[in-house]
Amino acid sequence: ELKKLLASHTGLHPDDQKLIFKDKERDSKAFLDMTGVKDKAKMVLVEDPQSLERRYLEMRKNAKMEKAAKAIAEISLEVDKLAGQ
C-alpha cells in the first residue's frame, strides 16, 4: 500500500521501488509495524534498477509482439483478398 501511495507522488511504479529501513530492504508484502518500523521512523525510497530494466525489456517484447500480430493481420487480409479473386 505504501508503495502505491508513493508511486502517485514520485511517478515510480511500485515494482520499481525499494524501501530501505535501517540499511535493509523491507518486504513489500509485510506490514511496516511487523518489520520493526515505528511511527515517525525515517525510510529511504530508492529506484530498483533491475526491476526497471525488466519492465523495459518486457515493454520491448510486447511491442515486438504487437508489431508481429499487426503484420500477420495485414498478410491475412491480403490473402483473403487474393482468395476472393
TrEMBL record:
Xref: InterPro entries: BAG_chaperone_regulator (IPR039773), BAG_dom_sf (IPR036533), Ubiquitin-like_dom (IPR000626), Ubiquitin-like_domsf (IPR029071)
One Pfam family here: ubiquitin
A Gene Ontology BP annotation from the UniProt entry: protein stabilization
Molecular-function GO terms, alphabetical: adenyl-nucleotide exchange factor activity; protein-folding chaperone binding
First and last residue of the signal peptide: none
Domain Ubiquitin-like: residue ranges: 1-46
Record-given protein name: Ubiquitin-like domain-containing protein
Organism: Nymphaea colorata (pocket water lily)
